[in-house]
């Protein structure tokens, strides 16, 4: 019996299942019970050109006169990739609405589903809601829920602008998300 227990212990030590499911952009963290995953990916938001990934779907009559475009509302279907390069591995898409919610300072209210398509995360999503003060170096938004692997998720997303073109408004944003689920 003791031998069997020892053999099982050795087998379990030799097969760290949690680690084998780790992906370059998504890692399970050991948090002593509560499943915790850290996700690091890049969000590509293209508003210019012939194939924008975010389009303006509404605005207020005063939006064009506002320095912060207060009231502009966009629908996004933005690719999420493993690296900063758009041609790096696609890991998911961020779909939903964001809009200019700041009158004094620039701020975007974000209500998006980040759905993933890679490895064990394929088909799972997290819902991100919060104010994104996009001109700040680091912004924090809340993860308010999830589906699939991320069912019952809560957590936080840190966003950092990796690249921004002020002429067009196109941006690449680095995300670092910690989710408890
Ligand atoms: C993700 O799941 C869908 C639907 O089950 C499947 O068609 C697709 O090939 C999967 N993608 C990857 C990258 O595993
Ligand atoms: C990502 O976030 C985690 C948790 O907040 C932190 O420990 C880690 O240093 C961050 N990594 C980067 C590259 O910002």
TrEMBL record:
Residues 1-20 form the signal peptide. PANTHER family: NUCLEOPORIN-RELATED. It comes from Vitis rotundifolia (Muscadine grape). GO terms for biological process: phenylpropanoid biosynthetic process. GO terms for cellular component: apoplast. This is Dirigent protein. The keyword Secreted applies. Pfam families: Dirigent. Homodimer. Belongs to the plant dirigent protein family. Keywords: Apoplast, Secreted, Signal. It is found in: Secreted, Extracellular space, Apoplast. Gene3D superfamilies: Allene oxide cyclase-like. Dirigent proteins impart stereoselectivity on the phenoxy radical-coupling reaction, yielding optically active lignans from two molecules of coniferyl alcohol in the biosynthesis of lignans, flavonolignans, and alkaloids and thus plays a central role in plant secondary metabolism.
